[in-house]
Design a protein that fits this description.
It is a single chain. By secondary structure, the chain is an alpha/beta fold. The chain is globular. The chain contains eight helices and six strands; from the N terminus they run E-H-H-E-H-E-H-H-H-E-H-H-E-E. Strand 2, helix 3 and strand 3 form a beta-alpha-beta unit. The protein has one domain: Rossmann fold. The two termini are about 30 Å apart. This is 2,3-bisphosphoglycerate-dependent phosphoglycerate mutase.
């Protein structure tokens, strides 16, 4: 029987998560806590008796390092890894690198909240969640989903917003529902899919 296994994991805490900065496409390192979160994710997946045939991640090192740490904990350092900017975090444009409190002082609480929490209103020079979904979802459908459905056990280490694009389609959520969905750093979500790509089961390995 084909095991259509797909695991999503958001990268561990980054240095800019800790500093309350808009990170977006800026390439920053994991914190010590982020490293531990990634290792713990690998240990949890190993304890579930899981293994993977292929892995995908973004073009940003916080996701790549998370994936390396997860696979290292599982003893899976030699599986093929594909890195693609289609899985990058949402690009926050002019907000990239800014402290979130400073952004609120500059543009006002309501405007910054709208940029952060609306579905289709992008910050200046950046992407909305809708824009992020428009690049991440086709990549998943064309490059990742066919392998999962054929039985390739797959893990994706990426970012809060690019993974929300996948969660939206997997769990058949509408724009309002996905806006309320938060993905914790370093917490694996295990999906098993039906042959038609719908979700047969879901396990969230939150601590």
């Amino acid at each position: 029987m084909t095991e259509r296994l797909l695991v999503l994991v958001r990268h561990g805490q980054s240095e800019w998560n800790l500093k309350n900065l808009f990170t977006g496409w800026r390439d920053v390192e994991l914190t010590e806590k982020g490293v531990e979160e990634a290792k713990a994710a690998g240990a949890k997946l190993k304890a579930q008796g899981l293994t993977f045939d292929v892995a995908y991640t973004s073009a940003l090192k916080r996701a790549q390092n998370t994936l390396d740490l997860v696979l290292g904990e599982m003893g899976l350092k030699d599986i093929p890894i594909t890195r693609d900017l289609a899985l990058n975090e949402r690009n926050y444009g002019d907000l990239n690198g800014l402290n979130k409190d400073d952004a609120r002082k500059k543009w006002g609480d309501e405007q910054v909240l709208q940029w952060r929490r609306s579905y289709d209103i992008p910050p200046p020079g950046g992407e909305s969640l809708k824009d992020t979904i428009a690049r991440a979802l086709p990549y998943y459908v064309q490059h990742i989903q066919p392998g999962v459905l054929s039985g390739k056990r797959t893990i994706i280490a990426a970012h809060g917003n690019s993974l929300r694009a996948l969660v939206m389609v997997l769990e058949q959520l509408n724009p309002e529902q996905i806006l309320k969905r938060e993905l914790a750093t370093g917490v694996p979500i295990i999906y098993r899919l039906n042959a038609d790509s719908t979700v047969a089961s879901k396990v969230d390995l939150a601590a």
